[in-house]
From TrEMBL:
Annotated Gene3D superfamilies: YVTN repeat-like/Quinoprotein amine dehydrogenase
Name of the protein: WD repeat domain 75
Organism: Paramormyrops kingsleyae
Domain WD repeat-containing protein 75 second beta-propeller: 342-663
UniProt entry keywords in alphabetical sequence: Nucleus, Repeat, Ribosome biogenesis, rRNA processing, Transcription, WD repeat
Region (Disordered): 761-816
InterPro entries: Beta-prop_WDR75_2nd (IPR057644), Quinoprotein_ADH-like_sf (IPR011047), WD40/YVTN_repeat-like_dom_sf (IPR015943), WD40_repeat_CS (IPR019775), WD40_rpt (IPR001680), WDR75 (IPR053826)
Biased composition annotated in UniProt, kind: Acidic residues: 767-789
Amino acid sequence: MEAPAEIRVVRCGGSRITFRKAVFTLDSKFLLCPSGDAIKVFSSSTEECVHVLQGHANLVTGIVLNPSNHLQVYSCSLDGTVKLWDFTDGILIKTYVVGPSIFSIHVSKKHDGVVFLVVPMASNKSQEVYQLVALHLPRSPGQEVEAKEMSAVICDISPLPRAISFGREGEYIASAKGVQLSVYFFRKQKEYRFSLKATDKKGAKNSFPCVSCHPEDDCIATGHADGKIRLWRNFNQKKEYTYSTEQWHHSAVAALTFSPQGTKLLSGGTESVLVQWHYGAVTKKDFLPRLGSAIEHISVSPDGALYCTSHRDNKVIVIQSSLKVSAIIQGLVTGDDVQTELLIDPRTKALVLNGKPGHLQFYSLHRDKQLYNLDIVQQEYIHESGLRQYGVMQAAFDSDGAWLATVEERAEEDGGVDVSLKLWAFSDAAHSFQLNTTIYMPHEGHICSMCFRDGGETTTLVTTGRDGHFKAWVLAEDTDTQGISSHWSCEFVGDYHLLTPSACCFSADGSLLAVSFREVVTVWRPGTWELLATFSQPPGDIRDLCFGRLGCSKFLLGTTTEGVLCCWNLLTCSVEWSTALDVILLQSDPLSDNMAAFSAAAGSTDLFVFKPSEPRPLYSQKAVSSGVVRRAVFAPHQEALQSCEESAQWLNRSRLYFLSDNMDLMTFSIKSEEDRILASSKQLVVDDSVALTPFCLLLGKHRQAQRNEQDPLCEQVAARTQLPQRSTAVRELLHTPAHVLPPASHLCTMFVNSLLVSKPGVRGAQESEEEDMESEKEEEMGESEEEMESRDAAGRPAIQNEAADGTASLSKGQERELRQIRKADFSWVSAALDC
């Protein structure tokens, strides 16, 4: 079954952000980093990823700001295109189709409408010789145009961007390759080449890894493999050039750049130290040490206030000009140091693997951000080759993420190995794992594999070693003066005919343990540790073991070194089926009964997804990766997908990730899921002046919830309160000449008060309170008047002539209501008549 068109193998989060030099925006608020086939826009203050510019079909090899528009950026890629982006909104403006693969891009203010590209020379088919060409960008209105007008500038140069630099605002360009420095003057259209000897009598290595030109003076700084820095002058004449030599680095200078004002020169290398040289007084230097990893690139903001260092461990550090670290952007650490399998933390659903030397990194696949590093070795790592230091070789989680087991090893001078097994307990108070038990030399030699038991009464860990034994470690509790404490101890040691064990795994319910001894598979019962059955599958030793899950839990699968994939039925103790397939990696989906098998074939790796109940694959794809895939893992989705295609249903619950031969983290993407993510990203509107932060997102959700709660109330108020339209007062205010109007200070107060709308309930309560107070005052005044009248009447005879009076007297309540009616405002009637 061939792969349908809707499933693609794509680079996912975790690509290198230090492959090329990062670029600051003009206002220094954002930092642009190439990352795989995309460009990530980070906030230089909050470290958050604001935008991801996606559109290239291959690796992005360089980015530069547009000199004529500081809100735009050019990018180049191995797909042979140059793209122009609006990085503030994340919009692709234009694509220039060049053709050949592009390895770096450069621009200059003096060359408007021209970008300089490093491409392979057409005459060399091996693509090992490169040239710098000037590409004239066409001004056609289309979004995708062909750009074929190119002219060669310098031939036989290095493809690395750090080996090319413009000088004096674009008057000349310098390029370094090997032991040769080339300088091309645009006005003269002449090139000068200067060479050094590869080595000298003192053993110096004079090759040029990097070059940087002074922005104002005729000075070129070159870094060398032996740690020297040379400042070249008078290079406009081939025979009269001079240079001075400075040195602080003890190994190769990997990065070198001048500040925009030319007052500082920054350098870095494997020492993990940023060196700041003062131009004109090179003996004066400032240092920022202990940056954690070797420096590969250095960038400076346009105003010179911020520096940026890109490190070998996929880390970007933003540094103030006073040499104080202000932000650290850590990507996924991959490389040859990855020894553990790819694991998923059951608590955080984060990807767990080797990080910094001696550490495990917890990386969120959904947020594409490192959560934290866990120090396993707990020793300072020394960056020097030849030293024997501890390294984390294996790791495993239990089912609920409460325990973590790690294995660290160090090679000894006599050929032996020093091994430590550490058990870590998760602490809710510290929100991290804390060391519980350390077991020195659990086996006499390397530990081959280990796994936790799920579903048992006691937490159990099984390890297999080169000493011919497998051991079961159980968690026990002790009571002492400080309370109840837990520790790990060995409960059982097993072997089989003096053979060396390799792979081990528990069934999904923890009732069975399978351990392979060469070509024999043994099945044990945990707890009693009774040998239940043995399976033999010659030829070849067992490479990997895996129990089926859910509806396929009665099957046990194994792969051999001779290219056989075998499935045993545990109920009948017989072979269910077998096939000739060189499976180098076998993974089971914890949320379904699917399994993924990676098979090596003709220099690439094929993928087969199947259920153990039948050998027919559900999905297969040839050459998912060039080279050999050694590590893979299923990670659960945050929300289950709804795929109608039968061949894509295996991706509904989990997503399969794997590390390619180039240590790139790859995954499988469905077109419907890509459309959903694209639609959700378009709904996010980011203000240019405010960087998107977790607090901003939380506050936005809170405000949206408040808005939703207030919407019904606002609609009711709007329905009850209809403001008068075409008000006479407003019309007169707008049409009356200004010289006859009252002072603006008097009109402003009246106008603003007319726009205020108070809450009906509050306004009615206030009016009723005011009316009651006024009525009480009037009653008091009426009572005082009656008392005075009564006193006057007592002094003279009373006249009783009710018949002569034609009207009846009103009560006090009726008089109070009459006074309230007189004070009522009926201006709304006139306003309604005017409308």
